[in-house]
Amino acid sequence: MNRFAWPACSSDMNPIEHVWDEMGKRLRRHVSAPRNSEELRDILVQEWDNLPQNVIQNLIQSMPRHLQAVFTARGENTCYESP
Asked: Which domain of life does this protein belong to (predicted)?
């Protein structure tokens, strides 16, 4: 098996980055910004609990396509977007 150098910031191969992006969008939809870290935590927990399972499932199912894109690019960065 040959190894290739992994891109240093390969967010396209890290599904949690797409989840954090979605969480950020959900946080920005709130009428008022959290006033302290406790409010931020409460909002994030609430949004995490309300995150549809199909969002997570779609990210998991997209991983073979992400891997193929990186393989095709020979380990270089890709322009792959989240599902």
From this structure: Eukaryota
